[in-house]
Each structure stands twice: as C-alpha cells, then as structure tokens.
Amino acid sequence: MGVDLFFVLSGYLISTLIFKELQTFGNFKPKLFLIRRGFKLYPCFYLFLLITIIIRLLYQQNVSIKYIIFEATFTRNFFGGFWVHTWSLCVEEHFYILLSMILYFIPFTNLQETRKVNKFIVSILALCLLLRISSYFIEFAYGESYFFNSWARRVQTFYCIDALLFGVFISYNFHFNLDQFMDIFKTVKKYFKASAYLPWSCKIFPRCEIDRACWSLLFNFPLLFLWWCHGYVCVYANQVCLFIILRKLQKE
Fold first, then answer.
1. Which helix (H) or strand (E) holds 155?
2. What is the residue extent of each domain of the chain?
3. Contacts of 190 (CB under 8 A, 6+ apart)
4. pLDDT tens sequence across 124-147
5. pTM value?
6. Is 125:117 a contact under the CB 8 Å cutoff?
C-alpha cells in the first residue's frame, strides 16, 4: 500500500507543477521539465550505484555489467538489477517521460475539454486494470511466465502506472474542472468513507486471490485501483489519498 499511495501523491504533485506551468505560460517545455527532474534524482542515484559497485568489488562479489546497464537506464523493473526496491524509481522515470510527451503534443486548448480528457484518463486506468486481471487469468491458465506472474504485476510499468495516473486525474480536475469535481465529491463522499474499509472485509474469505478480486471488483471498481501483492488485493490507497486531498480543499 505504501508505494502505491506514494505513487498517487507523486502523480498529483508532479502533474500540478505541469498544469500550473501550462496555465501560467500557455505552453509546456518537456525538455526543461525532464532536466529539472533529472537534477533531483540522478546525482544521488548514480552516486548510490557507484558506491554499490565499489562495495561489491571490495567484497569480491559479482558485478554484472548488464545489471549496471539496467539500473543506470531505469529498466531494472523489467530485466532485474542489484536491488529490489529501485523498481519504483523506474516506474517514476517512465511516468515522467510519458506524461511530458503526452502533454507536449496536446494543445492547451484541448486540455480545457474536460469531458474528453477525463474519458481518456479513465480509459487508461481501465486498461491497466484489465491488464492486471488478464495477467492473473493467463498465469492461472498457463502457468507463470516472464510477463505473467505476481512480481511482474507489481513492478512492471504498464501494470502499475495507473496509480500515478490517478494522481494526475485528481490534479487535472483541480485545475480545469474544480467546481464540477467538488460537486461530484460532495455527492459521493459517504461512499469514499465507507469503501475505504471494505477491502479489510476480504479477510473473511479463504486465502484465494480470485475471491478477493471479485469482492474488490464488486465494491471498488469505480475507482479502478486493483493490484495484487503477496496474495492480497489492496484497493484503498487511492481512496484514502483522494479523500484527504478533497477534504482539505473542501475546508478551505
């Protein structure tokens, strides 16, 4: 849950910077955006990579060239690397590139067509959800493979980028569709409160992933935030994030 909640918040904060730039200047410069993100991430990360290589050499441990390349190019979440936890940095980096490319090619005037933009975002969210569900059934039917296993569903970008996109969805509506978004939230805020507790009731089922998937689909499908991790279905990170942010805005 922790990483996914971080992804939602990160998607919200990063896209907020971009939307503010668009509203202020009327355009977005992806090159400058990526350079700024790079200065925040690359120095510490590559220093960490260098220290890791030195320590492994000192202790006469294997230093795989391919792992160095995968870590350095942020493709570790697809091909493996020295550390387990750097997969989240890979997803973040892929998100920065994809979001900047998409917003660069979308004219600012088109962003103001909130209905079309929201349909586009929700379509991608639904696609990620469908990919995870399809992956599970393919694994169940044919056995584990490179792209169809529980670890792949957890770390590979096209399975989990919807958490970041959900943050973008919130930020977009804050900046371009605030009144209608808040009206909808006021209407359904009781549902958000109640549904945040529903995933815990999955514990009444046997330890069966498919039962939990069906339960979550029944009660949380409108939020499109299913992911599998260690046999559990966690669907409440985005709900908690959305509730906290909108509640704070409502009080202001």
1. helix 150-155
2. 2-251
3. none
4. 888 888 888 888 889 888 888 888
5. 0.77
6. no
